[in-house]
């Protein structure tokens, strides 16, 4: 049995699909089983658990051959990242007590960075889990291609996509959630000792200009990208309701300045199979149905 967190989302759902396709039993770890009824129909066991409640997580992990750990994102963390520290403690306790065969933790590109930023939440959790004797893979993917969901409306309505990633001709490491799920499911089926870091990006790096070109081709209309000026970020994020925008701003700085990158460099990463155009096409089709 393989326990999968986040089964109702893009990445967790991909992990579960690949495990089921391999004929393996899956236990979905969910906050609300009612929202995962379709996975029960596919033959998955569903277990209710709260990521901040170590006891419920222990029950979800118990007797599992492998565990896929996905932490819900916190985009506006409190200073000092107390949310990540709570989650790190809960997961560590649950893994120690539940004793699964192995674990794949969905971390992030740049988890090794020493400058505080939004992704530091994953750094905190990695550090907390490292003392465990359990075989663990820290899976560090690049920028999710699915983040372009927010670009569909402006591309379609105005033909101008605002970009926080800059300069616009810089190629950034991006990856499809389908590739993340496929790789994670494969790792769960492997045997290893100790801790490993696996860094993952798509088949080719992508510039913001290339994102606009891909949208133009798919939408059949001119689309270009405009830089969102750095000095406008803080007032913009605060206007959107953020109380502590500094971590998000520093994350974007890290990508743009290059200190958020893969520890092994581009040559040391695994390469995904799904190109950007395929992801954008799926996102456009999904948005058209809504």
Which helices and strands occur, and which strands form pairs?
Elements: E1 2-5, H1 10-21, E2 26-30, H2 37-41, E3 45-48, H3 54-61, E4 66-69, H4 82-98, E5 103-106, H5 120-129, E6 136-141, E7 143-144, H6 152-157, E8 160-163, E9 174-175, H7 177-188, E10 195-201, H8 208-219, E11 224-227, H9 233-239, H10 246-257, E12 270-271, H11 276-289
Helix pairs in contact: 1-7, 3-4, 4-5, 8-11
Strand order of the largest sheet: 3-2-1-4-5-6-10-12
Q: How do the helices and strands follow one another from N- to C-terminus? A: EHEHEHEHEHEEHEEHEHEHHEH
- CATH class type: Alpha Beta
Count of helix runs: 11
The CATH topology: Rossmann fold
Globally, the shape reads globular
* Helical amount: 25-40%
- The secondary structure category is alpha/beta
Rg measurement, Å = 19 Å
Q: Into how many domains do the coordinates divide?
A: 1
Q: Assess the beta-strand content as a share of residues.
A: 15-25%
DSSP E strands, number = 12
Describe the structure.
The chain has eleven helices and twelve strands. It has one domain: Rossmann fold, CATH 3.40.50.720. The mean pLDDT is 97. It has 290 residues and is an alpha/beta fold. The strands form three sheets. The chain has an eight-stranded parallel β-sheet, sandwiched between helices. A two-stranded parallel ribbon has the order 7-9. α8 packs across α11. The protein is globular, with a radius of gyration of 19 Å.
